[in-house]
Write a structure and sequence with these properties.
Blueprint lengths: L12 H8 L45 H11 L5 H4 L5 E2 L4 E3 L2 H9 L3 H8 L4 E8 L5 E8 L3 H16 L7 E5 L4 E10 L5 E11 L2 E10 L3 H16 L30 E2 L4 E3 L1 H5 L5 H9 L5 E9 L4 E9 L3 H17 L4 E3 L9 E5 L5 E9 L2 E10 L6 H14 L2
Antiparallel strand pairs: 1-3, 2-3, 3-4, 4-8, 5-6, 6-7, 7-8, 9-11, 10-11, 11-12, 12-16, 13-14, 14-15, 15-16
Protein name: DUF7373 domain-containing protein
Organism: Klenkia sesuvii
Keywords: Signal
């Protein structure tokens, strides 16, 4: 996934991210949610059997548009980070990011159409998902969705809890989670990549208009306690969050800081990750949210505008992150801090860009045709990074040579 300061790894990010906030996605995941899903024959009926219809008035969702993306980024800032509960789940996994349609949620998390029906039935507006995994492949997925109203969120949670037991291969059993006042579904008898026995559990919990879904793998016997801790952290984050009324979503500002004009327009079609993020929203896309939180808050981080595009003709993803700080001294401190992190913690190999030899630049090699580069430029209160993923060779400098000077010119006045 090519995203804000996340080490590039999956070339399909551009296409998939665009689909999440469009009309859905053609990728199909069968059964219950899981990280790094694969397509296969459905293990459940493909003829959905929906729950009883709403007895009250469900407020319809607004049309998907720029405001939908802005609301998704608001939700990002209050989505529980897996590493907050399980510190060793520092690896990125999929799916993650904004969801503007119930079909997008169903297509990437579930796959047989019934979750889509339930979410739409109860007024799904928008959501944000995040995923973290440990070295043995044990993962936590967190999805936070905005629904029509509190009663609809509660009804959706009840319907989806029942549905969860009917998904998969018939090995899922109910599990009581008394500290949440909820029940989930549990599947025992799994194993991680190291061969250790694991259980899988997931649960749906309402919170006002918001609907929380958490899925995780854990060492055998520990999953209920771990999912309870993750959901409790999520519910705490939602206590101060006010979802935007549906009729106001289309008018939400997508660039309240006015940073967009200073972020380079890269080749290809924009994805729905594009827009402004506050600190908390940014950290849901960061490689190391703990370290980066400290670095950014210590230097007066004002916000970031993130632009991503996918160039289908070249099979390349592009990303530009434009950060703002109060002073040039603070910009320089973060500039140096990011460069150090790239070289020491994030797996980047430094290289010298011919066009701007002094720019900190790093390359990530993920196999033939999947080489990524990231370079930084800064001036005054602005710091920018430019990412290109899908290069054929580590020394293919031509695309970055063309783009980084353009980004420098945009911010140096």
């Amino acid at each position: 996934m090519l995203s804000v300061r996340r080490a590039p790894s999956v070339r399909l990010a551009g296409l998939l991210a665009a689909a999440l906030l469009a009309a859905g996605c053609t990728s199909t995941v069968t059964g219950s949610a899981s990280p790094a899903p694969t397509t296969g024959a459905p293990s459940v009926s493909t003829s959905p059997s929906p729950s009883a219809g709403p007895t009250g008035q469900v407020t319809p969702a607004p049309p998907v548009g720029p405001g939908t993306g802005a609301e998704a980024r608001r939700i990002a800032g209050v989505t529980s980070l897996p590493v907050a509960i399980t510190p060793d789940r520092t690896g990125s996994c999929f799916p993650t990011g904004p969801f503007g349609s119930a079909s997008g949620v169903d297509g990437l998390y579930f796959g047989d159409g019934r979750v889509e029906q339930e979410l739409d039935r109860w007024g799904f507006v928008v959501g944000w998902g995040t995923c973290g995994q440990d070295a043995a492949g044990n993962a936590t997925l967190v999805l936070v969705s905005e629904m029509s109203d509190p009663d609809s969120a509660a009804a959706a949670a009840a319907a989806l809890t029942t549905l969860a037991l009917d998904q998969g291969s018939g090995d899922r059993q109910p599990v009581e989670l008394p500290d949440l006042g909820a029940s989930g579904s549990l599947s025992a008898g799994g194993s991680d990549t190291a061969g250790a026995p694991t259980d899988t559990v997931d649960v749906w919990v309402p919170s006002g208009r918001m609907l929380v879904y958490v899925y995780l793998d854990a060492p055998a016997g520990s999953a209920p306690d771990l999912v309870t801790a993750q959901v409790r952290d999520q519910l705490g984050l939602l206590e101060g969050f006010a979802p935007t009324p549906q009729d106001q979503v289309p008018d939400l500002p997508t660039d309240p800081l006015g940073l967009g004009p200073y972020a380079l327009r890269t080749p290809g079609d924009p994805t729905r990750f594009t827009g402004s993020y506050d600190l908390e929203g940014y950290l849901r896309l960061a490689i190391d949210p703990v370290v980066e939180r400290d670095l950014l808050t210590a230097n007066g981080f004002g916000g970031v505008f993130y632009r991503t595009t996918y160039d289908e003709a070249a099979s390349r993803d592009y990303a530009v992150s434009l950060y703002t700080f109060p002073t040039s001294a603070q910009t320089n401190a973060v500039y140096e801090g990011f460069a150090q992190l790239e070289a020491t913690a994030f797996g980047g190999t430094p290289f010298t860009l011919p066009a701007i030899p002094e720019a900190p630049c790093f390359v990530f090699e993920n196999g033939p045709g999947n080489v990524a580069q990231r370079c930084y430029v800064g001036y005054g209160s602005y710091l920018a990074s430019v990412d290109i993923q899908g290069l054929d060779a580590v020394d293919d400098y031509a695309p970055m040579d063309a783009l980084l000077p353009q980004q420098r010119d945009l911010i140096d006045g």
